[in-house]
């Protein structure tokens, strides 16, 4: 869902190092349908994606190398693979005036600060692909004003003041594939009972797509559950049986395992 084009408050030039799918979503959200989009400078890493973005948006340009991105931008967003972060950032001379934002799930703030020195205004953020449509909420730690403002343009920012809490929020993003598989299991169950596969998927996605609309703006999950799980009803039965089968315990256990991996 596109929440409309945000007004341009003049963030300066935004540099992006590492131009893959996530970087493309960020740039699209910043520029698509915006009357006065910010100037964006892309690294040549991810050449095909960078070329496509530059062709689509007049405010987007491609720098000859990573150093040129840093030289031309005030805010630098790092979207490379975690295992490449040290080599990439060690090869870039940053200044004390730079704001450096890491979109890497498992690079700590201390690690980022060491790699970005002498820049001291460093932050972690974990945007999802939905920022392309200026949708969703991006956690930012620490919530530097420049970084929070950047992600406000992309659907909203969630200010996080504790790195452990930030890591826990990041861990929850690992549930998306599992959630989609859950919906797929429901559709497959319908398919095994005579509903054509395409229609089964259409019904399930429409049902949960409509439910997603109720979740916008910080819904009360317990309250919504109580509304549909009428005592003695079918929803209450299904939810209870999942609980008794240990499904929710598994969610807790596996999220804890993901969090341990993020923390290293």
Give short descriptive properties of this protein.
disordered N terminus; single chain; 8-stranded mixed sheet; 264 residues; ProC C-terminal domain-like fold; Rossmann fold; 2 domains
**Helical fraction:** 40-55%
How many H/I helical runs? 12
Number of strands: 8
Distance between the termini: 35 Å
Strand order within the widest sheet?
3-2-1-4-5-6-7-8
- The CATH homologous superfamily of the largest domain corresponds to NAD(P)-binding Rossmann-like Domain
By CATH, the architecture of the largest domain is named 3-Layer(aba) Sandwich
Number of domains: 2
Task: Walk me through the structure.
- This protein has 12 helices and 8 strands.
- The N terminus is likely disordered.
- It folds into 2 domains: 148 residues, NAD(P)-binding Rossmann-like Domain (Rossmann fold), CATH 3.40.50; 90 residues, ProC C-terminal domain-like (ProC C-terminal domain-like fold).
- It has an 8-stranded mixed β-sheet with strand order 3-2-1-4-5-6-7-8, sandwiched between helices.
- The longest helix has 19 residues.
- It is of the alpha/beta class and 264 residues long.
- Strand 4, helix 4 and strand 5 form a beta-alpha-beta unit.
